[in-house]
Structures are given as C-alpha cells and as structure tokens.
Amino acid sequence: MRIIAALFAFSLLGACSTIDATIDGGKNLVSAVITDTAGVVSYTLDTTSTVLKDVSSSATPEEK
Fold first, then answer.
1. Fewer CB in 10 Å around end: N or C, the chain?
2. pLDDT 10s digits, 14-29
3. What angle do CA 8, 9, 12 make, to 5 degrees?
4. What is the pLDDT at residue 38?
C-alpha cells in the first residue's frame, strides 16, 4: 500500500511540474507575441510618419 501511495504522490508531483512548465511556456509565448506585435506597430507608425513628412514637404510650396 505504501508503494502505491508513493507512486501516486510521485506522479502527482510530476503532473504539477508539467502543468507549471506549460503555464510558463504559455506566458513566454504571450510575451513574445506582445513584443512582436509592438515591434510591427512601431515600425508601421514610423514608416507612416516618414511618408507623411515626405508628402507634406513635397506639397508645401517654397517661399521665395
């Protein structure tokens, strides 16, 4: 009976470790997606800003 209880406890601890690893992996995945999304948004806004500045400078007549 003790052996069965020990095996049950050991398997329970192993399952908890696996669940913790899965949760940590999920957190890392979400963090990476957030970082990538922020990078893409930042790049898009930078590019749009540059294009708008170029268009604005081209459309503004120069004073003589």
1. C
2. 777 777 778 888 898 8
3. 85
4. 95
